[in-house]
Specification:
The complex is a heterodimer of chains A (about 210) and B (about 120). Chain A has about 210 residues and is of the alpha/beta class. Chain A has 10 helices and 4 strands; from the N terminus they run H-H-H-H-H-E-E-H-H-H-E-E-H-H. Chain A has 2 domains: about 20-50, no CATH class; about 55-200, Nitrile Hydratase, Chain A (Alpha-Beta Complex), CATH 3.90.330. Chain B contains 5 helices and no strands. Classes of the chains: A alpha/beta (about 210), B mainly alpha (about 120). The interface between A and B is large, with 66 and 73 residues.
Chain lengths: ~210, ~120
Amino acid sequence: MGDDHNHHHEHPDHSELGEMQSRVRALESILTEKGYVDRRTLDLIVDAYETKVGPRNGARIVARAWVDPEFKARLLTDATAAANSLGFPSPVGAHLIAVENTPQTHNLVVCTLCSCYPWEVLGLPPVWYKSAPYRSRAVIEPRAVLAEFGVQLPEDTRIRVWDSTAETRFLVLPTRPPGTEDWSEQRLADLVTRDSMIGTGLVRGP
Amino acid sequence: MTATGADLASIARDAEGPVFREPWEAQSFAMALALYRAGLFQWDEWAAMLAEEIARAQAAGDPDTGRTYYRHWQATLERMIVERGLSDAQTIDRYRGAWTHAARRTPHGVPIELAPEDLQR
């Protein structure tokens, strides 16, 4: 786990706060005392991101696009509006853009500068997405990065790397696997992984 | 991003695991989002400042594996709060010390609460 040390064994009689804990609590005290934030709002945000907002939202969007060509067309034209129409909140930042995988093109999403990510549809980014190796290597050698994720693409499939910004975030629309033609939308959604919507994975069929 | 020796490092992959590794990460995340929603800064301003903090930490030797991400997030939040005049560095330091003091006078197993005496030192 982390960098904070909650347990100083030489002082078992009282509590200790690690450096990060005391820094965070200091801001919380200041901001709540001044009325800039309130604890209930903070609790609701944490609860939402821990339990409600996550890659299952994106999976629902992907599955709908697989079964509904009209929705898919809207998604590829204006993903923000398409996501809103399924009841997902407006993103932090401005635009959500959906990019479609095809036999010719595979899409891979990165944020080279920090960690911009479509939270509202994928939840918060995994640790590796925020790491320097991924942020730099996804651009320089995407095929090698994909191989490390276990993704082998045909030689003639082009890899397109999308660099996210605060204003523009990307959702990959993965390829629907063969053998799922008569599947329900819910069953399809269960197949869709987080990594397949970042582009570091493929959706595997039955 | 700055090219470093870490470029050659392999990428640690994970399953769809927990989003926050420790409670303070969640609290820091939520404060930034609440201030953004209250209109105290634009998201592009936040992202630019966060990118600066990450670059600064890398330059100072942080291997930047993603595990220190919320440290950079918290540093950005502290800077943004001072820059927007919501508080100042001295006040933030005083409250940090007060929380450390509150912890030391609190027995194990009891929730740590801030009392006026922690700030009047």
